[in-house]
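Please supply some protein, with fold tokens.
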Amino acid sequence: MSATEPSKPTPPVPTRPAAPLPRKLPKPAAATPAAAAVTPVSASSAADAAKWGRVSEDGTVEVREGEDWRVVGQYPDGTPDEALAYFVRKYDDIAFKVHALEQRHQSGGASAGDLVKQAGHLLDEATDAAAVGDLAGLRERLNTLTASLSEATAQEAQQAKELVDQAVAERTALVERAEAIAARDLSKVQWKQVTAELGELFDAWQAHQQNGPRLSKSVSQQLWKRFRDARGTVDKARRAFYSELDDTHKTARDAKTRLVERAEALAPRGVDGIPSYRNLLDEWKAAGRAGRKADDALWARFKAAGDALYAARAEQSAAEEAESGPKIEARQALLEEAKAVADEPNIKRARSLLTGIQRQWDELGRVFPREKERALDDRLRTIEQALKAREEVDWKKNNPETKARANDMSSQLLEAIEKLEAELAAAEKSGDKKAAKTAADALEARRTWLSALGG
């Protein structure tokens, strides 16, 4: 629409004029000179207008309702046709609304309850209306429409009640789930999970309020109070938990900060600071959590301090390993030389040879890395243990005390054998088989013992 194009006037919504007073009748606005000219009643509708309305000589207009006439207004500045035309248009406005309401009912889709309310408003408007026309007919049509809508209205009311009952049940279920969360042992819950659960319930509650049927104020407030109280209980416990967690994190953060400072102070000590750093690491593990962000930042500093100490040890180990190359070669040569210990039959000479090798071994000093030193020591220790086993066997065989005890026992066994031989001979001579068998068994046993002693 251009700026110069005049806008179409919005037709005014007719309102029911006040009932005219007997002595002071209202003048219609159309009678004023500034108002638009009133179109007279056409020939086709003049007879219909005359059927329902009449105009007196002073411009008073009346409408027929049944057998009675009722004054609807006064139109003194125009002709009778113009007066009737004005009040007929008032009737036509009401009739149009009634027709539109009937069409909405026939087309379906509209709420029966809304249609009944609108029919009631139109019925009030058609009663004692300042209009000329079949007002009784309009009221009858409205009453018929209201009657036809009564059953649908009852069904809608029942459906609305069922929807409200269902909505109450659904909201009650939301309340009970929230109360179940609040009834848990909130000192042992996973707060991320609980917060998500309660958030979902609150979103469901809001969606139900926005999209569900309207509940009565008392029921709605009662359910909301229960939901709010459960939510408040959880929120209070969550705030207390995180407040305590903040205090715990602060304590751990302060303790770990001090540990970091102590670890960084070990840097000048180099390798010698490693034992102290390990003690600090044990304290770090016992300090507790300080929150992920703080823990990560503090641990980066603490680890960097330890890495510096272990880097110094790595440098020292590399230098020591480089110095140990000739020592390793010398020890390997000594191990080759020590193989002769096992081949030497004379135990004393074997011990002398091994002792010389051990002396040279110790004079070489420590070997790095330690794993290499332990491997070389294990090979020498195997040779030492083999020689020691040989020495123990030799000692048992050549120990003077052992020999003396063996000789004494041998003498006793020889005497016993001589005696048993005599007993065996006597038993055989006398024919005593039992005595001969006993003497023979005892004699065999004594000879076995003597053989074991080397006799």
Summary: The radius of gyration is 62 Å. DSSP finds 13 helices and three strands in the chain. The mean pLDDT is 81.
